Amino acid sequence: MQSIRIGKEPQVQYLLRVADTCLILAQRITEWCGHAPILEEDIALSNMGLDLLGQARGVLTRAGQVDGRGHDEDQLAFLRGEGDFLNVTMAELPRGDFAFTCLRNAMLATLLKLLWQRLESSSDRELAAIAGKAIKEARYHQQHAADWVVRLGDGTEQSRQRMQAALAQLWPYTAELFDTDAVDDAAQASGLGPRWADLEAEWRQEMAQILAAADLAVPEGDIKFRSTGKRGVHSEHMGFILAEMQYLQRSYPGGAW
Amino acid sequence: MTTPTPASTEWPLWEVFVRSRAGLDHKHCGSLHASDAKMAIQMARDVYTRRQEGTSIWVVPSSAIVASDPADKDMYFDPAEDKVYRHPTFFTLPAAVNHM
């Protein structure tokens, strides 16, 4: 089935960056269902994935309304092509090992927590209401993931090596989180939400605290690599995750159960 | 050299108590494995309160619970069977006392 197209209005793009980051991260996290190291964590990860999915649903619905082309949350999730997904690249990277998952969750939960905090006073009342609910979930996600980062970073020789490796892998993708552009400027001007660049100082401070407690060294040096998922240009992993996520709706349009 | 038993390679066991509403008492609802108290609280939250079951959680190391011996059951509990007078239902309240 052919992909739907969405508008290029900055408000729609801003909402999709939030919604798609939650949606794709939810999809990645729930890949752990049935595979987490212990039963309790298996449930915890599924809970977090479903929280993120709920957040994505709300914001996708809102994006569809603002876009005005009559697309609902399901159509936006299942019928958009890769170039119209605007999640940060970090969210789409393969799930990796448990250390990688925990560190990515800590990084993105910290970002989303700071974002929801500001979105609670968005000029878009619908978005503000979603943020009011999501902020509680994001706070717990951050705490839960950060605890694991500390336990593994400051744990055994092996857990420490894995966490340090995860940090080296993920760090190059952090710059994109705070890249700013006209979409951010428009959101700031209209009161829809903050420039993501304005979250950077607090994000770095909170992550530095977590990494220090985990006894992990922040990678140094200037990284030239820049990921661009927020602008619709994704890593090689994105097509695969969408293929898995969208297969059913593409093959059986409108299918429900 | 002995092979470690499953119990010695697993994280400690914790008993979980959840209070469903303010004013009610914490009720035992199950157990879980966690490496320490902080993790046990988080795991209890994720395992036992995901369907709005709780407003407060206690966790207690299972090893800290002292239980009565099942072999003592007859000696401990059967003698109470014929002591109905221990229930306060035999007292007649004065008419002036309401709401008891």
Structure report:
The complex is a heterodimer of chains A (257) and B (100). Chain A is 64% helix and 0% strand. Chain A is mostly helical and 257 residues long. The longest helix of chain A is centred in the first third of the chain and has 29 residues, at 39-67. The two termini of chain A are 19 Å apart. The relative contact order of chain A is 0.15. The mean pLDDT of chain A is 96. With 100 residues, chain B is an alpha+beta fold. Chain B has a single domain (11-97), classed as Ubiquitin-like (UB roll) (Roll). Helices cover 21% and strands 20% of the residues of chain B. Chain B has three helices and three strands. Chain B has a three-stranded antiparallel sheet with strand order 2-1-3, covered by helices on one side. The longest helix of chain B has 12 residues, at 37-48. The radius of gyration of chain B is 21 Å and the shape is flat. The chains are: A mainly alpha (257), B alpha+beta (100). Chains A and B meet through helix 2 and helix 6 of A and helix 2 of B.
Q: Reading side by side through the largest sheet of chain B, how are the strands ordered? A: 2-1-3
Major pleated sheet of chain B: 3 strands, antiparallel
CATH domain topology of chain B: Ubiquitin-like (UB roll)
Number of helical segments with 4 or more residues of chain B:
3
Spans where pLDDT lies below 50 across 5 or more residues of chain B? none
Question: By helix and strand content of chain B, what is the structural category?
Answer: alpha+beta
Main β-sheet of chain A, in a few words? none
> What would you report as the Rg of chain A, rounded to the nearest angstrom?
18 Å
